[in-house]
Structures are given as structure tokens and as C-alpha cells.
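Key result, reporting period 2: structure in, sequence out.
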């Protein structure tokens, strides 16, 4: 299989889980013998190579187009970025044979649609999240409505649509009026070997960041309202009163960071909460391995990769009972609580922090579930099956159009000539 992946982020510079997902998928496809090209954004300002073969993957990074548009000015930025993606991918497609284009999320929709039309290639689209879901079921402003419409357009242009959970499958089918047979569920994956942390290194790291009798709670992810960190802050004093000294580590960046810091000050938690900022992979895994419990209290979560990562590092998890998180912790692999319920969250954290047998059971069942359901090699194989179906469906469609449609010269010859003002 020869695949072109389009993504607005890709290592070494990633913003969230999407970039890591695309990189892992690309590496595993390559390891299984497929040829993979990636066209992505240059996040480095020119420090990273414009084009390179990385872990067997052909990566092309597009620089900002002059004049440089701020990402905060989102619509012009997206249009400018897609223009550069179309140019770079077009050059690539004139050099390499490609069977399928795989577009990841709405930020590459314009490029995917244009390349599909120019090169007559099938598009597979992965919808990692929706604007509707990120805002808990409504679209508050013109920008949100625009993003929602572009997401619909991506699923319309795609020959097949992938979602990361059954929850997301139902959401995109309902939101974008998709026939169920067009949507496939392929979960995010994880390679357990990547999350093997030296116990001695993890213990030394733990001693460096907190005291010997202090419990360590970790959140890792984007700092956005829908991630639910504010619920942990409201629950923290109750946890401390029942289990003793507890420190909450918040790893990540996002638009809600300032508001969360304000809440920490207002709640008198400045000595009990640490904002780490964005963590590179190894440092993040040290935090996972050192923590007593990882919390993912999301209000909205299409999948919940951070819960899987924590399980892989041997850390018990407490999650919001929503979306993909609910599917991840099924079978006793974690505790789930009603989103935004600070009392229920406090009780669940106290249970894990005060019951070593419970915590150990969650860890054992969590790692077993990961090995059985979220292995990246299996995820890559399932994705290839979707590619194959998209290619077959595209070929059938093109064949039917060729059989039924007269040649273009005939259409032009027989087309009626409209007089000015004719509205027919």
C-alpha cells in the first residue's frame, strides 16, 4: 500500500495527541511494508529539515507562507497552510505513486479535497474530535459553526471515515448524517515497549519532585475546559483531608491555562498544584510512572489516549465516565465517575490512594487490556483494511461513472447554449 498522510502536526513538534497518533501509525505502516509519505506543518521555523526520511517514513514539512499569518487568526492561517500543503503534496504525487490519501481532522480538509479532485485518489478521513463535542453539544459562535461545516465537508469528501471509538462513530453519524456503512471504528494505539520506564529512574524522579509521604496525582493533556481539570482542583482539598499530603501535577498547555492558575490561587492550592508545562515523551513517561494515580476527568473525550498511556506505565487511572474513556476502562481497568462531579471524583481518588490492592488490580487489568486491544501493529493492520475498502469503492465508483457518462467532448457538443437571462 502506498499512502499519503496529511496532518497539521507531526513529531518532533507536537501540540497534542493527534501528532503522536499520526507518527505511530506511519511508523507501524512502514514496519509492515507499506510506503508512507507525510505532509505536515513546519513547527520549527526552519530548524527541522523540509524533507527527510524519518524511521522509514517520508516526511515533508511545509513552511509558513509569506506574509506570515498568526495561528490566532485561524481562518486565514488554515487557508494559507492548506495552500502550502496542496503545493507540497502535488509535487510529491507527481514523483511517487500513491494509492490513498489519509486526512487527519478538519485542519487539512481543503488540501484533501483539492488533491482528491486533481489526482482522482480516494480519501480516508479520521475524525479525532468534533467542534460540537468540544463545546458540549452546541456551537457558540461563527468560528465554531464554520469548523463544524468544514468537518462535515471532510466526511462528505472522504470515501471512508474512521473514528477512534464507538462513541465517536455514533456522534459523527448523527452530526454529519453519514450512512453507518461508511464509518469504521479503529482505536488509537500504543506500543508498550515505548512506555517501559526504569523503576529506579522513576523512583529517583519521584523523590526529586515531591516528599516521601506526599501522594502524587497526575493530569496530562491539553489545558482546555472540556478536559475537566477544574473538577480535580475543586476535589483536591477533600482528597488531602482523607489521605494526607497530596500534590497535583498538571502536565500540558492550552487556552484554559490562565483560568486554571487563577482557580488555584482562589482555592488556596498554590503549594499543592504544580503546572509542568508541555513535557517531552521521556519526561512525561517519568511523571506517569512516578504518579500514584492518573486522572482524566474529561467532560468530552473522543478516545482518551492519556488513560491508555498511564495504564502502560503501570499507573491506575480515574476517568470521566464519557466518550471513549468509558470504553477504555470497561472491565475493571479503571474507575469512572460522572463528569464535573467533584464529590464522586474525590471519592474515587481516595479509594485508589488508600487501597493498594485495588490500585494493583487496576494496573494489572489495564496492562492486559492494552495488550489485547490497543497494540499499534493491530491498529495499523485495521487501518490498511479501511484503505483497501476505500480504494475498491473508489474504483467501483469511477468505473460506474465511466460506463454511464458519455465522453466530455460529447457532453460539450450536445450541451444547450443558454441565452443571457435564461434561468433554466
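The corresponding designed sequence is given below.
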Amino acid at each position: 500500500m502506498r499512502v499519503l498522510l496529511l496532518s497539521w502536526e507531526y513529531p518532533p513538534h507536537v501540540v497534542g495527541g493527534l501528532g503522536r497518533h499520526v507518527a505511530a501509525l506511519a511508523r507501524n505502516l512502514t514496519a509492515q511494508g507499506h510506503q508512507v509519505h507525510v505532509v505536515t506543518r513546519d513547527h520549527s521555523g526552519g530548524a527541522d529539515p523540509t524533507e527527510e526520511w524519518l524511521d522509514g517514513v517520508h516526511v515533508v514539512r511545509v513552511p509558513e507562507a509569506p506574509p506570515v499569518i498568526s495561528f490566532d487568526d485561524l481562518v486565514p492561517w488554515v487557508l494559507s497552510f492548506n495552500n502550502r500543503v496542496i503545493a507540497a503534496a502535488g509535487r510529491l504525487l507527481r514523483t511517487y505513486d500513491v494509492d490513498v490519501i489519509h486526512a487527519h481532522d478538519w485542519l487539512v480538509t481543503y488540501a484533501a479535497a483539492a488533491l482528491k479532485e486533481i489526482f482522482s485518489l480516494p480519501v480516508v478521513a479520521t475524525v479525532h474530535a468534533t467542534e460540537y463535542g468540544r463545546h458540549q453539544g452546541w456551537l457558540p459562535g461563527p468560528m465554531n459553526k464554520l469548523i463544524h461545516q468544514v468537518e462535515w465537508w471532510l466526511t462528505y469528501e472522504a470515501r471512508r471515515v474512521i473514528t477512534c471509538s464507538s462513541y465517536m462513530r455514533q456522534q459523527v453519524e448523527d452530526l454529519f448524517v453519514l450512512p453507518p456503512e461508511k464509518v469504521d471504528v479503529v482505536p488509537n494505539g500504543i506500543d508498550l515497549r515505548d512506555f517501559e520506564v526504569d523503576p529506579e529512574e522513576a523512583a529517583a524522579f519521584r523523590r526529586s519532585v515531591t516528599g516521601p509521604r506526599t501522594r502524587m496525582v497526575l493530569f496530562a493533556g491539553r489545558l482546555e475546559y472540556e478536559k475537566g481539570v477544574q473538577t480535580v482542583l475543586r476535589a483536591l482539598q477533600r482528597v488531602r483531608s482523607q489521605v494526607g499530603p497530596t500534590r497535583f501535577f498538571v502536565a500540558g498547555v492550552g487556552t484554559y491555562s490562565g483560568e486554571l492558575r487563577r482557580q488555584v490561587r482562589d482555592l488556596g492550592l498554590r503549594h499543592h498544584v504544580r503546572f509542568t508545562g508541555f513535557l517531552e515523551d521521556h519526561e512525561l513517561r517519568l511523571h506517569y510512572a512516578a504518579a500514584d494515580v492518573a486522572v482524566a476527568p474529561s467532560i468530552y473525550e473522543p478516545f482518551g489516549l492519556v488513560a491508555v498511556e498511564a495504564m502502560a506505565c503501570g499507573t491506575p487511572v480515574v476517568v470521566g465516565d464519557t466518550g471513549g474513556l468509558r470504553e477504555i476502562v470497561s472491565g475493571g481497568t479503571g474507575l469512572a465517575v460522572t463528569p464535573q462531579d467533584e464529590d464522586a471524583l474525590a471519592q474515587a481518588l481516595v479509594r485508589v490512594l488508600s487501597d493498594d490492592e485495588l490500585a494493583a488490580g487496576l494496573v494489572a487489568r489495564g496492562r492486559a487490556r492494552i495488550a489485547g486491544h490497543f497494540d499499534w501493529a493491530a491498529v495499523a493492520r485495521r487501518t490498511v483494511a479501511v484503505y483497501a475498502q476505500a480504494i475498491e469503492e473508489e474504483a467501483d465508483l469511477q468505473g460506474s461513472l465511466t460506463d454511464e457518462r458519455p465522453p466530455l467532448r460529447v457532453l460539450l457538443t450536445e450541451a444547450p447554449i443558454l441565452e443571457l437571462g435564461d434561468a433554466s
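The longest strand covers residues 35-41. The radius of gyration is 24 Å. This case is discussed further under Risks and Mitigation.
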